[in-house]
Design goal:
single chain, 700 residues, alpha/beta, 18 helices, 16% strand
């Protein structure tokens, strides 16, 4: 049982919710029927575990392993059930094969005993869907209650989506782990997700994932999950000037959804407890499902990990018993004395927020990639344009390449200076191999738009999003592309939409093909410099940029984490080589903030995994060099479960030294447990991570 008392007690209703035994039975509940005040209407579907289910959407593990997504009857009008099945298939990730360990050593088909689940893995139960708020303010929730829920010792796993993905994204990770442990699972998209507004066709995504004309959405079916906020006149005017553009929820909702991540995870737990109470059955705790009777674990990866940490910080009512996060994306409060050392050397720049380290990285990466010709993604760069970027970085900015250093190094030495600048900015030296595949200017730009609460017509720094034709010019989406966006898009523009430079010489062009004012391709240097200036205070070039930079800063401040988990047990795992969310800007300084903030009450352990980064990809070049962080996320969940159920202490903060698979790219031998040693209950002194009064010391 949870050790902490709770002041939060949801209403107890000793009335069962009637549910049909049919595999796709649907019921709609009265929003006032014992649910929290924030909840709207609730739709429930009960799955028999044969034709459809909670974990595999009826596909079974065999279906999740197929290399092609589940078929839909009509590509122009996939049903909500078909989109759900497609989204669950994508979240499981089992189609990539098991040589890297997924599906064999870890993953949704690995049960509570650490062994593959027998059979096809289908889990019977009831799934509730709830949308809180409307339009740009909407947040999606899904609650899964397995038929074999352990009602005598109930548990809830809150699994917020990673990235900007749909609400089912957490099913294949923490969600699967929770179902295997007979827990209810609380999913949320954190107010982000793949919702869009195609401004040319006036098509939007509804809250059930289907797409259709904005004028029809909400009249005969679910309301739009997002629209641009433009009336029809303004939309037509913008489309005439910038045809075929698309607005999407994260960048253009004007809501700064990241500021609500913690709230949304807490609401997912509150909603789950209320639904369990409304469906109270024999064997349940006599006092009902409350935080005092129900173990609650918040767990997520990347953005989802940041949301789990945010929930732990914002929990004032004892809802959450523990937090587990992998590679959490967090914007930290100013460190003010918190320091990070690696191998006895002080990290000069630690704790930068994503918009700063990512905008700086996007400037430096096209030059730095020239240091690693064998790296994945290198072939996608034009070497002449990359060398030009090197020259463009030379100047007086100490974050880039200083003139005096360039003069000493010469032209051939500029790529090394760019990589050194990335290391000064807090990236690991070993990250050079990953810079090419992580070049992504749209990440900082989309977050800047979100923080600034910008509209799609504001088009900060001359950027927009669109599908493009073979020449790189914006082109209309097909109906099928828009219809599938719920399952195929990562949360930005519907696939295959990309970032567009509206100011490219000769007219708007795909950002990677952008042409500078002098008629030479330059990877949109001006746009990236603008995004860089918006991220760093004091760099703005004119009054308009200063105004937007202030708005970006205000939105950023609303998302910062201060390190106070109120003594809640927490376990963070992070790959040392992470180039998407560098350890020096996330987990390492957070450990220091937590130690200083909680003044000896901290129950946080931090585990850093060597030879691991932000993706568990087994593509050539990744397969032989890196081990999967997902293996350690699942292990961290097991360790936290032992802490909650048996009182076992969490392992000390430590570095886990893994062994890459080796071999040639694309031909690495299969991962074995020898490659991924376990997190140790008593690590060697040379592997321990120390923290005291905000000073974090990580061994090499």
């Amino acid at each position: 049982m949870p050790a902490r008392p709770s002041r939060f007690v949801p209403p107890l209703l000793a009335v069962s919710l009637a549910a049909s035994a049919l595999p796709t039975a649907t019921a709609r509940a009265d929003p006032g029927d014992g649910l929290p005040s924030f909840a709207g209407s609730v739709t429930s579907r009960t799955y028999d575990g044969r034709e459809d289910d909670l974990l595999t959407a009826g596909l079974g593990f065999a279906g999740l392993r197929r290399t092609t997504p589940p078929a839909v009857a009509d590509p122009y009008r996939p049903t909500p059930a078909e989109l759900r099945r497609w989204a669950v298939w994508a979240a499981a990730g089992l189609s990539g094969g098991d040589a890297g360990g997924l599906g064999r050593l870890y993953g949704p088909d690995i049960g509570a005993d650490g062994r593959p689940v027998p059979g096809d893995g289908k889990v019977a139960g009831t799934e509730y869907t709830v949308t809180v708020g409307t339009g740009a303010r909407s947040v999606g929730f899904v609650v899964q209650v397995p038929a074999n829920l352990d009602r005598a010792r109930p548990c809830v796993v809150a699994a917020p989506a990673t990235g900007l993905a749909n609400v089912y994204n957490g099913v294949g990770g923490a969600g699967a782990w929770g179902l295997h442990h007979r827990c209810a699972v609380a999913l949320t998209d954190k107010g982000m997700g793949p919702a869009f507004h195609d401004l040319h066709s006036d098509t939007v995504m509804a809250t059930d994932g289907t797409a259709g004309p904005r004028t029809r959405t909400g009249r005969t079916g679910p309301r739009a999950a997002f629209d641009s906020g433009l009336d029809d006149t303004a939309r037509r005017r913008y489309d005439a000037r910038r045809p075929y553009r698309v607005a999407f929820k994260q960048a253009h909702s004007r809501q700064n959804p990241q500021a609500g991540w913690g709230r949304d995870v807490l609401r997912s737990v509150e909603l789950t407890l209320a639904l369990l109470n409304r469906d109270w059955r024999e064997g349940a705790p006599a006092a009902g499902y409350t935080p005092a009777t129900t173990r609650v674990l918040a767990a997520g990866v990347s953005n989802g990990g940041g949301a789990a940490v945010a929930a732990g910080e914002e929990d004032r009512d004892g809802l959450i018993d523990a937090v587990v996060a992998a590679e959490p994306q967090m914007n930290l409060a100013p460190l003010r004395g918190v320091t990070v050392e690696q191998g006895g050397r002080r990290v000069a720049n630690a704790g930068l927020p994503l918009v700063r380290y990512a905008s700086l990285a996007s400037l430096l990466q096209p030059c730095a990639v020239l240091t690693e010709p064998s790296a994945p993604g290198y072939a996608s760069f034009d070497r002449h344009t990359a060398r030009r970027r090197c020259s463009d970085l030379v100047g007086d900015d100490p974050r880039l390449i200083l003139r005096r250093d360039a003069e000493r190094a010469g032209v051939r030495g500029l790529p090394d200076l760019a990589q050194q600048a990335l290391v000064r900015a807090g990236f690991q030296a070993r990250s050079a191999y990953l810079q090419a595949s992580h070049y992504d200017p749209q990440t900082p730009l989309s977050y800047e738009m979100s923080f600034a609460r910008a509209s799609v017509i504001d088009a900060l720094c001359g950027y927009s999003w669109a599908a493009t034709d073979a020449s790189g010019r914006p082109a209309p989406y097909t109906r099928a592309q828009l219809a599938a966006a719920y399952a195929t898009s990562g949360g930005r523009a519907p696939s295959p939409g990309i970032l567009v430079d509206d100011d490219s010489l000769g007219g708007p062009l795909a950002d990677r093909r952008s042409v500078g004012p002098d008629g030479v391709p330059d990877y949109n240097l001006d746009g990236e410099l603008c995004a860089y200036r918006l991220a760093f205070p004091g760099e703005a070039a004119n009054p308009e940029e200063r105004t937007w930079a202030r708005r970006v800063g205000q939105g950023l401040d609303a998302t910062r984490r201060d390190g106070d988990l109120h003594g809640t047990p927490a376990l963070i795992v992070h790959g040392r080589d992470d180039t998407r969310v560098p350890v020096n800007h996330s987990s390492r300084p957070y450990l220091g903030l937590n130690s200083r903030t909680e003044h000896g009450r901290s129950a946080l352990s931090y585990v850093e995994i060597t030879n691991a980064h932000h993706s568990d990809s087994t593509a050539p070049g990744y397969d032989n060099r890196y081990v999967p962080l997902g293996f350690y996320f699942q292990q961290a969940l097991d360790l936290m479960w032992a802490r909650l159920t048996d009182g076992r202490p969490l392992p000390p903060s430590q570095v886990v030294r893994t062994v890459p698979r080796g071999g040639e790219p694309g031909h690495a031998p299969a991962l074995t447990r020898a490659n991924v040693p376990p997190i140790s209950a008593s690590p060697a002194s040379g592997d321990r991570i120390g923290v005291r009064s905000g000073a974090v010391r990580v061994p090499d």
